[in-house]
Design goal:
303 residues; alpha/beta; six-stranded mixed beta sheet; 12 strands; 24% helix; 24% strand
């Protein structure tokens, strides 16, 4: 299938700020949220800055992408108020038709929180047509591209941030990948936890990473976009016709001298005459000297 060039902005892990009155409640919270709120007060609020995220979203909008992919961790400890504030922020980022979202571990920080709080986000996590209410995986078709979202978000014990798809999602994903391969579409898999080497940690990684890799090795995909690492990732995993590129930027709100400052990726996708899908990646990153987002690298991917 030959399609006109299509542009996608990918950002991840914005970690919208907790309010002071919410963090003041931490002494009365008898579960995992206690450690998360303490972490926010002691460290994370000095790293994930609203002004950096605002500059990043302005930079995305200035580049006029045709679609936006957001791979999770909008929240910190999944308080009910966080979901509502995040819904307001999503509305500023773009319309549900123009933004595809997959949740992260901080969006499902404790049992039942995501199910109870994320309803205002649902329009950003639904497929096209009759599959709109089918849950995960969901699939959207944009410009000859199948955007396939899965959820790896799950509540975990204190000091764990692991993720998992589960057998039902993996089975459905295999069917979706096969169907869109037959239709000749470029398939972009979107998820929060890394499916490659960056997701190998037992404490922070993807628990069924090997099972996902099996599905991708059999059915293929042309690109995988993820978050979670807070550092840039350019990886690959085996596919039936060659390596599948795996890509992630750093946190969208970070000013972090010990890791990486905020970045997002502009993906410009085209199908050249060779039949392979080509993705030109522009890395846009925050420069603390200029106080602006600048191009920090460019490279091409073929699949």
């Amino acid at each position: 299938m030959t399609v006109a060039p299509f542009s996608i902005a990918h950002l991840t892990d914005p970690h919208l700020p907790l309010l002071a009155e919410e963090t003041g409640l931490f002494a009365a919270v008898p579960d995992k949220r206690l450690s998360g709120i303490v972490s926010w007060r002691m460290k994370r609020r000095h790293i994930h800055l609203p002004r950096i995220l605002s500059l990043l979203t302005d930079d995305i909008h200035a580049h006029l992408p045709q679609h936006i992919v957001l791979t999770g961790d909008l929240l910190n400890v999944s308080l009910p108020q966080e979901y509502l504030r995040a819904a307001d922020w999503l509305g500023q980022l773009g319309t549900p038709a123009d933004v595809s979202l997959t949740p992260g571990n901080h969006d499902a920080y404790r049992p039942g929180a995501f199910e109870a709080g994320a309803n205002p986000w649902m329009a950003y996590m639904q497929g096209d047509g009759p599959a709109r209410d089918a849950g995960f995986p969901y699939c959207r078709i944009r410009g000859g591209i199948a955007l396939i979202g899965v959820s790896t978000a799950m509540p975990t014990p204190v000091f764990s941030s692991a993720g998992e798809l589960g057998a039902r999602q993996l089975s459905a994903l295999a069917e979706i990948l096969a169907a869109h391969s037959k239709a000749g579409r470029m398939r972009i898999l979107m998820l929060h936890h890394p499916p490659g080497g960056a997701g190998a940690s037992r404490r922070k990684g993807l628990r069924d990473r090997a099972a996902l890799q099996q599905v991708l090795a059999q059915h293929g995909a042309e690109l995988v976009l993820h978050g979670h690492t807070h550092t840039g990732v350019l990886d690959q995993i085996p596919g039936p016709r060659g390596p599948i590129p795996v890509l992630a930027p750093s946190s969208a709100s970070a000013l972090d001298p010990h890791r990486e400052h905020a970045r997002w990726h502009l993906l410009e996708i085209s199908s050249p005459s060779s039949g392979q899908w080509q993705t030109q990646v522009t890395v846009r990153g925050y420069n603390p000297v200029s106080g602006q987002f600048e191009t920090q690298g460019q490279f091409s991917l073929l699949a």
